[in-house]
């Protein structure tokens, strides 16, 4: 089965003067997105490192709704989004998303890294196999 992993990060977050406030807004937004979009989320979004967060979604789905949701809830801050589309190797969805693994996760990590290097808002990589 094919899934899509979304990894987000806030651009230049260390330079934000209200970083703590934004972090709390992010926590609230993650709780809210997990409820509002539970019909497409396989494994809930969680913060994985600092102000980086990820979630696992069904494929195909309207991922742009999730991006728009986070942009709105975070006061239109600039964010990076890396999406990896492909298989996963661990299917125990009682685990948190950061405990899952597989090609879709590797592609999402590669996508967010590339987005940051090239200052792109969105990069999508798909495993064609």
Question: Can you walk me through this structure?
Answer:
With 129 residues, the protein is an alpha+beta fold. It has a single domain (3-126), classed as Alpha-Beta Plaits (2-Layer Sandwich), CATH 3.30.70. It contains 3 helices and 5 strands; from the N terminus they run βαββαβαβ. The protein has a 5-stranded mixed beta sheet. Helix 3 links the parallel strand 4 (79-86) and strand 5. Helix 1 packs antiparallel against helix 2 (63-73). The longest helix has 18 residues, at 19-36. The model has no long low-confidence stretch (mean pLDDT 95).
Key structural traits:
35% helix; five-stranded mixed beta sheet; globular; 5 strands; alpha+beta; Alpha-Beta Plaits; 129 residues
Topology diagram in text:
Elements: E1 3-10, H1 19-36, E2 41-49, E3 52-58, H2 63-73, E4 79-86, H3 103-118, E5 122-126
Parallel strand pairs: 4-5
Antiparallel strand pairs: 1-3, 1-4, 2-3
Helix pairs in contact: 1-2
């Amino acid at each position: 089965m094919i899934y899509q992993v979304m990894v987000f990060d806030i651009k230049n977050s260390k330079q934000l003067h209200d970083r703590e406030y934004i972090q709390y807004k992010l926590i609230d937004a993650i709780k809210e997105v997990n409820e509002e979009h539970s019909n497409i989320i396989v494994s809930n979004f969680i913060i994985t490192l600092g102000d980086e967060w990820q979630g696992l979604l069904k494929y195909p789905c309207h991922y742009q709704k999730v991006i728009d949701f986070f942009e709105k809830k975070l006061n239109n801050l600039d964010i990076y989004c890396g999406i990896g589309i492909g298989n996963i190797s661990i299917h125990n969805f009682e685990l948190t998303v950061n405990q899952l693994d597989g090609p879709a996760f590797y592609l999402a990590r590669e996508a967010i890294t590339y987005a940051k290097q090239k200052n792109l808002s969105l990069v999508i990589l798909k495993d064609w196999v």
